[in-house]
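Onboarding guide, step 5: your first structure request.
Type a short instruction followed by the sequence, for example:

Predict the 3D structure of this protein.
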Amino acid sequence: MVTDGQGGRGGNGGNGGSGDIFGGNGGGGGGGGAGGDGVVSSAAAVTATGPVTGGSGGNGGNGGEGVSFLGIGGGGGSGGSGGGGGAGFVLQQSGTLNVSANVTGGRGGAGGNSGQGASGGITPGGNGGNGGAAIVLQQGGDVTIEAGARVNGGSGGQAVNGGKGGDAGAGIVLQQRGNIEIEADAYVGGGLGGQGDSAGKGGAGGAGIVLQQGGDIRIAANATVRGLGGGADSGLAGDGGVGIIGAGLTIDNSGSIIGGAGGIQIRANAITFTGGDNFLANTGTITGGIAVQGGSFAPALTSSAIGTALDIGAAPLTFSSGTSYNIRVSPTANDSVTTSGVATLTGATVNAAFAPGSYVTRQYTVLTASGGRNGEFSSLANSGLPASFIASLSYDPTHVFLDLALSYTAQGGLNGNQQAVANTLEQFFQNTGGVPLAFATLDARGLSQASGEIATTAAQAAFDAQSQFLNILTDPFTSGPQGIEQSSPALGYAASRESKAYDAFAAFATKASPAANLEQRWRVFGAGYGGNARIDGNTATGSHDTTSRVWGLMGGAAYAVLPQTHLGFAFGGGGTSFGLSDGLGAGRSDMFQAGVFARHGLTQGGYLSGALAYGWHDVHTDRLAPTGEVLRGGYKADVFSGRIEAGWRITTQFAGVTPYAAGQAISYRMPDYRERGNGAADNFALNYAQHSVTATRSELGARLDRTLLLDDALLTLRGRLAWAHNFDPSRDAVALFTALPGTGFIVNGAAVAPDAALVSAGAEIGWRNGFSFAATFEGEFSGNIQSYAGKGSVRYRW
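The system replies with structure tokens like these:
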């Protein structure tokens, strides 16, 4: 513990001697001795409870007088410079210093008077000595200035006869890194600059605190850190002292930081940053400017929440070229600085660090200077900025803005579906000023996941199932109601009644017997079908490979209202499953089908058939959101369809050949529905709009059949080869993000090729008792379609 301390006063400099009798200049006065330090300690922990004062510097000696000889006068001697004041307290080792009393640096000694020249001229007097610092920590450490204590740097010495006043000492100097805490009602200030004389400039005022290697400074409420004014008398006033100066500083101010008054500068800076990374928080007052002469400046402490708004009052803010202004940006806030003074920005860089979060705002105000703005920042550097954003700076006369534009195209190479999602998100961002960060960070795959393409595949699976159902109803070979008469020329078969094993087209070749028309009007049949289809996606549109599987069972009956005209109906049920490549989603549906059909036989082997059918699908979809979680959707869809077919059977020696043409239309009616997910996935849930997708196709080809007679049955071999043209190949859906109203877009699924080849092969065996069984294998092939299906049927007629 130190109860008091007083450094010794430096000795005065000697006076200069006069010139000799033969003429000559007087001798210069001697410099004053340096004042002694008040207390010097190497202890690790020191407490100062009593007053400590550095010794004053000695005054400079007076210059000697000049002597004249033979009319030539010698010049007077220069006055000696005053000695420097001693430090109040010096801690030689790194440690802690607690101060509860007054500590004052020594005053600089006054300059000596100049000697009188023999010719009457006056040589400049001596400069004042520099004041000593109040506290010096040579190896850094921690300093606490307790409540009520006062720390003052020593004043500069006064100059005379045109000499320069001595510079004042600082309040606290840390030569290595350390921390300073100034408690309530405490005061730390530099000394007053020494007065100059005549043409001599006054000495600079002392800084309040100097941290040469950085550190933390906390200033409590009602505490003051002050740079004192420069010296002034009849000459030019000295520069004011800076309140706080150093590199790598973290300042938390609840009190007052004041720059000293000066000469050329009206007031010195309250704070000057000379290098390193510097941070400032302020709930007190700052009088004087803030100058960033080196390093960087951040308007918040690292421990504070993002969004700190630093108000520095009327203090002007000046950035030197090559420095930087560091700000943190969160999805909802940003650090900023406000001054009612002037901000000078030319040559500095803005460094924006983006933190992760849930929302990103379009424009941030990062600096406000109601007193006006000089220049612009030279560049902007970003860290943590999502790849889908472009950042830039904009200005008005009193503000600097950080602007963010959402632009997924910066990633390059987006396909159609990805671009559709990107466009709607970018538009939402521009319209509303923000977008959830989960959307902003989407890469190309994330955009594909967000597109919800799985919704387009349910329709294709329904088309496949409904097409199978329609073909069974209208296929003259397998639908069941057709039969042949006994006199079929293809068989050379004769009997008194219609054969129970029948060929589908023989009925068109001859007139039905009256007995057959009366006795065999009803036919019933059952059938089952299943198939698998793959449609390749398109890289440009962004559609993915689609697979679908269908299965169904059905049964029905037909009645011959006229010998060659049959009307019938059928009901069925089954299911579908579908999915996308790259794990983008899958789904299934349970279905019900119902239809009516009619067939009319024409003369000479012709026929005309048609069917109308309805399908109902209970659809369920699952897909992965970009978060990796599952989104589920479900809805009930209606399917309306129709098919018409006409053909003409030509009998040849080897087989029956039936050229045919057909037209088919299927409309899938998807209602509006919403996906749902858990947690973060729900942000990506889509609302799908009510939408109808129609598949219309034509077929042109030929059916082949050849019948073989077995012991008690007929075996008929059948085949088909046809060309199908798809008039509506696209598969799409209209969606919007539930969390982002107004973000509508169209997502495209894999489109079928316009033209495809249809092939089939099958066999049927029929017995005289009226039963028959048939099986058929079918395929559809094109540039991007590979589809395989099989169906079987059993029929009975009476």
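Each response can be followed by summary notes, for example: The chain has a mean pLDDT of 84.
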